[in-house]
Write a structure and sequence with these properties.
It is found in: Membrane. The chain crosses the membrane at residues 22-41, 53-75, 81-102, 123-143, 155-176, 235-253, 273-295, 316-345, 417-437. One of its GO terms (cellular component) is membrane. The protein has helices at 5-12, 17-33, 35-69, 77-108, 115-146, 155-175, 189-205, 227-242, 246-253, 259-265, 272-301, 306-350, 385-408, 415-439; strands at residues 148-149, 152-153, 356-358, 365-367. The chain has 445 residues and is mainly alpha-helical. It has two domains: 5-187 and 243-439, Up-down Bundle (Growth Hormone, Chain: A); 188-242, no CATH class. It has a two-stranded antiparallel sheet with strand order 1-2. A two-stranded antiparallel ribbon has the order 3-4. Strand 3 (356-358) and strand 4 (365-367) form a beta hairpin. Helix 5 packs antiparallel against helix 6. The longest helix has 45 residues, at 306-350. It starts with a helix and ends in a 6-residue tail after the last helix.
């Protein structure tokens, strides 16, 4: 759906590019804030299995509403906007509830001694997502543009087909229920964690000068909370500290679907509506086996741990945006040159009778035609390939490693919560883009 979402805003709802970018990233942010809700429901009440089922239904309904909003004959333009926003909100809540549970539920199927197998699972899990993404980003734009409905591009079909496929996926998931290992919910763990942290901070703040110092500030809660809970919270906090720089990676990564797409619209390209996601998904399918078979074993020999792998991924992301900046400079220069040529031709045609221009030295003359349009940009979209290669390499090192690391380092009763914390860094990354785009009024590459 995101493959055509920016173009839906620009071409169907007739929003400008800045508003389209803002709404795109606001939607992405909401998709990654709501996992906290899904994690709390799963770990405290319904369990991961039932949470996935119930919120998948919300997800499907959201897609149906979004599809109806894309039917031109349904109400006014305000009605289309309202239905589109309601649909996007429902999709965000549905996908937010599913996201932390699916990865954690998959990890639950492995015992602790099967760490290598679990790591391979997360690689296959990530490849599966991108295999589906690759297929859908080929099919969705075809449904949008090649299948005409209501006298134009069929966004209603492009949004409706994912809803039908999600129903199929849900049936398949439920069909395998007898084979799954299902850990029961263990109460409102997140609330207990917050209470323990608050109590420890309060106790430490009010301590007398004569009281013995504690090794860790959380140890002040030992008189009220179990040592096991305190130790588990320490584990979670150690992981969360590593999450602090992560939003910057996602602030760069998620601009593939907004500013990189808009950059490509000003280049020589015939299939801009889906190529950015298709490229990313295709490269993931190529890179993951290479990294699993070659790169990660080399990292193991060099004793490079998960945090260093993620840091390397962030470096690749920075290099990707260096490449994107270079492309943007060339695109802007090309457009400016084209515009100057048009101005010169217009000026010549204005000051020469009959739209003819005499060549220096007399003799022959050439006809000049007045033009209003800017000449086509001849910078080919292939120049964007290096930035996608670098970004995808960074994603493989960063995201897959982070998913497995988040699962393995979290206590058994907080697997979904920590997965939600990981996803929350994506939301903050999109907020950074919103602040830069709207607050500072700057154009990103």
């Amino acid at each position: 759906m995101k493959a055509v979402l920016t173009l839906y805003f620009v071409q169907y709802l007739h929003w400008d590019k800045d508003l389209s970018t803002a709404v795109y990233h606001a939607f992405s942010s909401l998709c990654y804030f709501t996992p906290i809700m899904g994690a709390i429901i799963a770990d405290s009440w319904l369990g991961k299995f039932r949470t996935i089922i119930y919120l998948s239904i919300v997800y499907v309904i959201g897609h149906v509403v979004k599809s109806v909003g894309a039917i031109p004959t349904v109400g006014s333009s305000d009605m289309h906007i309202a239905l589109s926003m309601i649909g996007l909100i429902m999709i965000a809540f549905g996908t937010g509830g599913i996201k932390p549970c699916v990865a954690a539920f998959g990890g639950d199927q492995f015992e602790e001694e099967h760490g290598k197998e679990r790591q391979k699972f997360f690689s296959v899990f990530y490849m599966s997502i991108n295999a589906g993404s690759l297929m859908s980003t080929i099919i969705t734009p075809i449904l949008r543009s090649d299948v005409q409905c209501f006298g134009g591009d069929c966004y209603a079909l492009a949004f409706g087909v994912p809803a039908a496929l999600m129903v199929v996926a849900l049936v398949v998931f439920i069909g395998g229920s007898g084979m799954y290992k299902r850990n029961p919910p263990q109460g409102n763990v997140l609330l207990e964690v917050c209470k323990c942290i608050g109590y420890a901070i309060s106790k430490r703040w009010k301590r007398s000068k004569h009281e013995e110092k504690k090794k860790h500030w959380l140890d002040w809660a030992e008189d009220k909370y179990s040592k096991r809970l305190i130790q588990e919270i320490k584990m979670v906090l150690r992981v969360l500290v590593l999450y602090i720089p992560l939003p910057m990676f996602w602030a760069l990564f998620d601009q593939q679907g907004s500013r990189w797409t808009l950059q490509a619209t000003r280049m020589n390209l015939a299939f801009v509506e889906f190529y950015h996601i298709m490229l990313n998904a295709l490269m993931i399918l190529i890179f993951v086996p290479i990294f699993d078979l070659i790169i990660y074993p080399l990292f193991g020999c060099c004793k490079i741990n998960a945090s260093k792998e993620m840091a390397t991924g962030m470096i690749f992301a920075a290099l990707a945006f260096g490449a994107a900046t270079w492309v943007e400079v060339n695109v802007v220069v090309c457009l400016q040159n084209c515009f100057i040529i048009v101005l010169i031709i217009n000026e010549i045609s204005t000051h020469n009778k009959g739209n003819y221009f005499n060549l220096p030295g007399g003799g022959d003359s050439i006809a000049v035609t007045k033009m209003e349009d800017v000449l086509a940009n001849n910078i080919h979209v292939a120049w964007q390939l290096p930035q996608y290669v670098l970004m995808t390499a960074g994603e493989v090192m960063f995201s897959i490693t982070g998913l497995e690391f988040s699962y393995s380092q979290s206590p058994a009763n907080m697997k979904s919560v920590l997965q939600a914390g990981w996803l929350l860094t994506v939301a903050f990354g999109n907020i950074i883009v919103l602040i830069v785009a709207e607050g500072a009024g700057l154009e990103q590459v």
